Every structure is written in structure tokens, then in C-alpha cells.
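Table S2 (text version). Query chain:
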Amino acid sequence: MRRRFPITTLALGVALSLPAHADEGMWMPSQLPQLGKTLREAGFKGDPKTLADVTAAPLSAVVRAGGGTGAFVSQDGLILTNHHVAYGVIQYNSKPGHNLIDDGFIAADRTGELPANPDFRVLVTVGYDKVTDAVLKETAGKTGRAYFDAVDRASKAIVAECEAEGGVRCSVANMYYGTDFYRITQLELRDIRLAYAPPRAIGNYGDEIDNFMWPRHTGDFTLLRAYVGKDGKPASYSPDNVPYAAPAHLALAKDGPKAGDYAMLAGYPGITYRHRTAAEFEEQITWTLPTRVAVFDQLIDVVEAAGAKDADAKTRYAAQLQSLKNQRKRAAGELEGLRRSDAVRVRDDDERSMLATGAATKERGDIDALAASIAGGSAVRERELLLNLFGAQSQLMRTAITLERLRVESAKPDAERENGFQARDHAMIEGILKQVQRRYAPEVEKALLTVLLTRYQQLPDAQRLPAFDAAFGRTPAALKQALDTLYAGTKLGDEAERLSRFAAAREGKPLAADPLIALAAMLVPVQLTLENERKTREGEQLRLRPAYMRALFAWRTQQGRALYPDANGTLRVSFGKVDGFSPRDGIRYTPVTTVAGIVEKNTGKVPFDAPKPLLDAIAKGDFTGTEDPALKTQTVNFLTNLDTTGGNSGSPVLNARGELIGLNFDSNWESVSASWMFDPRYKRAVHVDMRYLRWLMGKVYPAPHLLKEMGVR
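Corresponding C-alpha cell output:
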């Protein structure tokens, strides 16, 4: 086997010495000192070396919150994140007659703060260490599933050693597609409580109409608080717990942003695909995105129809509907943006030029093998999409499959169990099981599954699975009868029933009889077979992609371009400036909006139904202390050219002095495709101006005790 040179030492050092555009790149903290000259030229006033330490301010204040990002804004565990990141927490605490989604929530004091859903987590990164040699030490000579297993075993051993003393959650992150690996150590905070949420008509003003659009006028923020046991260690919810002592917290700036100002963002971006192959770009544009839009449209229609007839179902599925709408619009925007940028042709031309270089010629055997493996996965792409949604968009069906899979995995030694089913995962599984009944209605779940399984029934025979055919039939009538029978007989809608089976499953014992459990016993073996096929492909690609990356590094160096790792859910930093943009000929967007836009958009009807207290406060015009000195009014949102993607929701935006000036919550429509292709002409990030937060919490929906805690006088 060809020797694998570590890119980060042989190629990345060269790449980082090249000019880096301040507006492009989701950088690992350890890379930032090497970008010191570029940072200073962009306007950063601090020492770039401080940004390499995740255990020191400001990065130690930045946390992973739920599916997004947040930041500590007080020493007593107060966390600022997006309204939409905390939407599930708000929905979990809502019920008929007590609708926190519409009405908002302000805890009068800490005793009034409301517990989040049991599966909500906040992770504080306390370690970020390179472990490449340890991960790859047993991979020599291996291919396919054997290569995957070697990496998996080594990663699990690293995680187990990291977590041995308890109190932390560890993971191994893959950087540069199998070239480098990092051990991420995080404190897992499990007792999270709701402290402040604005009403929906502020936190989600404009809803889907304004989603991914500019200009925006949305107060997309919420305040949570993290609690721990009296011993200072992470603990599940208890009224005896105490606020978590944050390692650092961000100070709110007294002034606000203006065009051209330096801006920096730290957060946990989800996944980007900018270094994928030209074939993967083409599949994303010609099949994946159009298909996702079509499926999400169907699922959205089901939930909206149910909510129109049943107010309780509307509340139960509010968070899921919001997520579906966001995913649907993102897919549509990504498709439009990639077509606008002619991404298939551009990426294909770029790859052809790369493959013509001497560096690529040396790697051509592995690069061609990688292309063949990718093509093999495409043959089952539609089935993979539907089966992933089958679990993700259901509650009871997911519960049954999770319990059965846990039972199967628990019969193995812990180190050999699948990720997600080890002893370290039991608390999270239990938390998921405890929140089911507040997010479930049988008729809605059956309707969602009908959409997905009907599409499955239309797959070609080569993608069909006998166990699924036996369970759900080959016709719509058979499917309806199967679902009606299953949901009429199941007891998994009751929390006690779920938890009793969880207790058995975690010990590897037989589960009490239930129709959905019996179904899961049929489907989990299929899941395991498909998983083996997927891991075989993934192992081969994990082995082969470093060859592609070596060629790409050499090509980018030849072009004079720096190459940062694709985002993968780990802590990253982006930097740039406050900046508007021109989406089309003759149109120029300024980078700041004001409360005047709220009034202009207001119709009195959802989603532009600005609350009366807000409209009255705008009319009063008392913006003392938060007014923009140039605009002479109250700002709401602003734009930067910072590099962001999904997962960056809730990321703090800092000025040149490291002070908090904004809260990231969206991107503009023209840049949704940036997860695949970065275009500096269009890529903008949308943020809540912290002056708007201070004004709302000071004079519209007052919470003086929280402002004081955040250092606002």
C-alpha cells in the first residue's frame, strides 16, 4: 500500500502560508495562529495565538447547544442561542392554554426557569487534540469493511480512554476526509432550562416567507441556563442542582456594527462538501436536492393538514414542522444557487485541471477506485434517503427500532457495540424516550409514514427489501391496513411502557410483546445488513479519499489558494467584515436593518403579526442606549461575509475586540448553496444585532435581572 503522508504537515503548512481570503474558510482553532497576518490585516485587535486555545476565552465560552451553537453570556451558566435552536425546548413546555411559542416566556427568577426536553444537551469543548497516528495505526493493508472497522475500533478505544474518568463526552473527528483525526473532549451538560424566549412574532417574525431572505427583521434569540449537581459535575435535572460556573463568558459590546467593521464568528458548523468530487457535485444537483424538496413538500403538507384540524397536534408537531420547512427551503435554495453558479461545470473543469497535474497522476489509481465506490453508493440512493427519513420523522416507530437495536447491541461487549448504543449513550436514549408523548399523535405519524412507505413501494425491485414488503405490503391498501393494525395495538405511546422496555433492552433481555416491537425485530436485521454494505463503502472511501485530498492540496497550492477542512460539526472560526451585497443587477442591499422595516412588513396576520407591545415601543421611539448613532434609530439585523453553514445557528459574532455584537441565525437565499460552493459575491450571514436584544429585554419585554446578569446596566 502507498505510504500516507500527513497532509497537515507536508501540504497544509504550505497551503496556510498562501494568501487566505478573510471571508472564506471555517478554520480549526489550531490553524488560526498561522493565519495571524491575515487576521490582523482584516482588523482583529487581539493575539491570534489566543484563538488556538479552546479552553481559554473567547472560545471556551462557545458551546454546542442542541443542533446548533450557543455562548455563555454570564458566569452563572446563562447561554445565548437562537429562538429556532431552542424551539424544541419552547415547544416541549407549551400546552393548550399555556402557549410559550406564541406568547414567549420570561422566568421571573431562577426558580421559575423551565426544564428543557430530556434529550437536549449543551456541550462545552475542553480538549481538541490530534490523534491521527493512533487512529490509523492498524489500517495498513486493509480495505473496505476491514479498514472501516480498524478506524472504528481505534476511535472507540480513544473515546473510552478519554471518558474513563467520567464527566466528559468524547469523540473522534475526521479531518480532510480520512487524512487527519482529532479527539474532541466535551463536558456534557444535561440539565438545561429555559430563562427567556421572545414571542413567536418576534423570534420568528416572517417565518418561512423571510427564511433565508434579506432584508430581515427577526429577533431570533433565546436564553437558556445550564445547571449541574452541587458537586459541580454534570447531572440530570434536579431542583437541587445549581447553575453551572462557565469557564468564560462573552461581554456584550456597548456599540454596534457598521459597514466595513471586522467581524468574527465561532461555532459548530454541521457539514460542508466543498472538497467532494465532481461526480458528487453532479448527483447533488441533478438528483439529491430535487428529490429532497419533493419529499419534504409531502411531509410538510401532512403536518400542516393535521394542525389545521387539531390544535393539540399543531403544538405537538410545531418543532418538527419548523425543521421540515427549514430543510425544504434550504434544499430548494441550495439547488437554485448551485445552478446559478453553474456548479456542475465549474467543479468538473476544476477537477479535470487537477487530474492533469503531476501530483494527481501519482494518485490516479486510488482516485479512480474512489470514483467507482461513489458510483456504487448511488445505485441505492433513493432507498437510503427514504429509510433514513423513516426513522427520523417518526416517534413510536423510531422508539421501537431503537429499543430492539439496543437489545441486540447490549448482548455484545461494550467496546464492540455500534456508536449510539454503548453504555455512554444510555442517558441520551432515555431522554429521547421520555419526550415522545409531547411530540406524537398517532394519526399524524401514520400519515407521515404513509408518505415515505408509498414512495418506497414505488422503488424498482433491485432496491426493495423482502422484510419491508412483508411488513407493509406492496399496495397502498395493504400499507394502510398494516399501519392501522400496528398503531391500534401498540402501547409504546405510554412513557412507562417505553421505559420498562428500555430497562430490559439495555441489559440485552427480551422485550415485552408489542406490535411495533415485533415489527422492529423483523426490520433491525435488515438494518444491520444495509449498515454492513454502507460501512464497506465508507471504509473504502475513507482509505481512498486521502489520495484525492493530496492531489487537491497540490492543485490549490499551485493556484495560490489556502485549503481549510470541510466542516464536520467541530468548533470552527470564521472571520471577515460587516458587508452588504448585490444579488442582481441594479440592486444593492445595505448591511443593516431597523425597526422601521418591522412596521413596513406588519400585516397583523401570521407571519407578519408584530406584537402590539413591540409596535407601541417602536412608535414611542425611545431607543436611548441602543440607538445607532448614524441611523438615529433602533437596528434589528445585520449582514457579514462570514463563512457559515447549518449548525452555525446561534453562533456568537464578535467585533475586533472580542466583544459580542451579534448572534448568527441565517444566510441569504443567494448563498444557501455555500455548503457545496463558496461564492464571495453572494455569501452572507444574517445576525441579530445585540442592540436589538438589549432594547427588547430592556423596554419591550423587560427582563432587567437578566440584562444585569449579562453586564448591561
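Notes on Table S2: Confidence is low (pLDDT under 50) at residues 1-15, 17-22. The longest helix spans residues 515-559.
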